[in-house]
Amino acid sequence: MAAISYELIKTCQQSGARLGKIHTPHGSIDTPIFMPVGTLATVKTLSPNELKDMNAQIILSNTYHLWLRPGEDIISEAGGLHTFMNWDRPILTDSGGYQVFSLSKLRDIKEEGVHFRNHISGEKLFLSPEKAMQIQNALGPDIMMAFDECPPYPAGRDYMKASVERTSRWAERCLEAHQRPNEQALFGIVQGGEYEDLRKQSANDLISLDFPGYAVGGLSVGEPKDVMNRVLEFTTPLLPKDKPRYLMGVGSADSLIDGAIRGIDMFDCVLPTRIARNGTCMTTNGRLVVRNAKYARDFKPIDEHCDCYACRNYSRAYIRHLVKCNETFGFRLTSYHNLHFLLTLMQRVRKAILEDRLLDFREEFFEQYGFNKENAKNF
Ligand SMILES: [Zn+2]
User: Fold this and answer.
1) Coil vs helix vs strand at 272
2) Looking only at Cα atoms, what is the longest distance across the chain?
3) pLDDT per residue over 51-95, tens digit each?
4) Where are the catalytic residues (predicted)?
5) Right CATH number for 5-268 from 3.40.190.10, 3.40.980.10, 3.20.20.105, 3.10.105.10?
């Protein structure tokens, strides 16, 4: 029996977006969903209770980082990642591939895997499909990701074709090495950059291996927004309708809505928590940099339309003061608000799908956000 299943509840008549549920060993999640990122087995500055308060249903953690520190053996000995970090809802882990390709400058990609140097100590390391599966089997998340090659953007067609073919061979090795298919679902990752025929080749290769879910990888790596949307438009229709679809590394409000419209069910990104630690907040009226001097005597909440703990209890002036003084509580409040904002946004997206009005919702949301081409970066 498969570890997870996808239930399609409704397709939005106006946009084609999907409302669904993914049933996992640690409970069900409502899709489309945003997954907060807990890189080192913690969503930075927030406790599991706080994440539950804001209705986070699933979080993501990083194989590469947990492999290096504290090591998957310690987490396994603790009873797995859920027990180790005291989070009893679903967890997804990535494969480590993205970090190997993004953090390590010294790497050597071979058919058997990737040789590279630890980004902290400089020590020589080797990660392969088999090793990525062994680590994720030890960590014990509900959903784990296949080890793939993450090509740079832009990449030439020849490079991309070779990379797609290697990723397919690695995906097959991941399936063979996966020891706990009844308890943990392994997702394949469709690559191919902006090349439609290569996306098709990658999707076909992976679908023939019958994964319980599929991710679209290699996006949100610096390409223009319209390229991402175009790639999604020709990639998601290739994927099975009865399996979840996950767009990796996307966390800006506009991209979440546009991804859902193109049939994506799951998203993750460090963006909301990372910018929170710079004192930047996502609000219904666009981005608000609470560090700015103009908020020194502003006693309104970060977002007057938000009912999160930070907005119900604290002012821009107070949060600005804390952030300027590097007080942890300031970063906690901005992180809380930003995650609450995206999780609430996805709730509103799900409601709009249910009511067959996601395109109308998009228009209203973008209007209030002040979104246009000139300030697209203000998300
Ligand atoms: Zn708030």
Assistant:
1) helix
2) 60
3) 999 999 999 999 999 999 999 999 999 999 999 999 999 999 999
4) 94, 268
5) 3.20.20.105
